[in-house]
Protein: Gastricsin
Organism: Mus spicilegus
Amino acid sequence: MQPPVPLWLEASLTALIRWGIEAAIFSPFSFLIGNQASGWCSSSGCQGIVDTGTSLLVMPAQYLNELLQTIGAQEGEYGQYFVSCDSVSSLPTLTFVLNGVQFPLSPSSYIIQAVPRLWTAGPALS
């Protein structure tokens, strides 16, 4: 009789595990705010983390601050950012361009209605 086949193996975690991508794989990589190139990945390149378990968009603080200023977001008491409902329709589309393929996010995809008259751009994660 053969021994049972294990269903799992124990192993120690030696590093943070995540699915990461080098933007160079998708060269050229760019990020557009409206129809304008942000220039964020021009000199040092960019990296991304593929996470299908969340819809958060996270970026370095310097880029986040520029984006929040561009969309006119105001900081709330607990680090979240808000825009007026009246301005959502005029906000720019954010577009990831990977290997020449555009992946646009409309304002309603990156802004969440928090209360009847305010929309939030989310917490400042960096």
Observations:
- The radius of gyration is 19 Å.
- The chain has one domain: 19-123.
- DSSP finds three helices and ten strands in the chain.
